[in-house]
Amino acid sequence: MIPESLSPDSRVFWLHLGTAIVCGGVIGLERQIRGKASGVRTSIMICLGTSLFVALGATAAQADPTRVLGQVVTGIGFLGAGVILTREGRILGVTTAAVIWVTAAIGCLIGFGYLKTSLVITLVTIALLLGVEYLEELLERRHTRGNVREQEGEGVERRRAGWSRRSGDVQSIAEQDRRL
């Protein structure tokens, strides 16, 4: 007998499918609009795939859902690692990798049937991505107007170098010091 969450004849199946598509699609749309490596299609597939694997693990006879979750986390970790790049002393793609991981976690919630929670986490994810971006831009604008006070022991150039980076951008201190 096929479990409700995996049977196309069941309303539960279609609710899970639709929730995975909506959650993955919303997160992917935010990433695609910003020109990031993981867009709408990728995010939907990650969310949908993880929800299916978890639903299988949660309902199959003699299956251990915790082992399925462990394998999902490992696989998604490799997928996320593939989008992280190093270019000119900067590490790029860390936020995209983290978003891939969160999207998979949302898919896991859906697979276990926590649909409302998955929708809330999707909204929180979007709010964080947009809110932190807005906060970074606000702080950069304040800095360029000269409203940021000089920190004790740091010169203007060093402070500006720190403000010019976005979250997720990592530079070695030694390289940063060489430029100053």
Task: Write a short abstract of this structure.
The protein is mainly alpha-helical and 180 residues long. It contains seven helices and two strands, in the order H-H-H-E-E-H-H-H-H. Strands 1-2 form a two-stranded antiparallel ribbon.
Task: Characterise the protein shown here.
The protein is mainly α and 180 residues long. It has one domain. It is built from 7 helices and 2 strands, in the order H-H-H-E-E-H-H-H-H. The chain has helices at residues 11-33, 40-59, 65-81, 94-112, 115-144, 156-163, 173-179, and strands at residues 85-87, 90-92. A two-stranded antiparallel ribbon has the order 1-2. Helix 1 (11-33) runs antiparallel to helix 2 (40-59), helix 1 (11-33) runs antiparallel to helix 4 (94-112) and helix 2 packs antiparallel against helix 3 (65-81). The longest helix has 30 residues, at 115-144. The protein starts with 10 loop residues before the first helix and ends with a helix. Mean pLDDT is 83; it is low at 147-156 and 162-174.
Task: Describe the protein's topology.
Blueprint: H1 11-33, H2 40-59, H3 65-81, E1 85-87, E2 90-92, H4 94-112, H5 115-144, H6 156-163, H7 173-179
Antiparallel strand pairs: 1-2
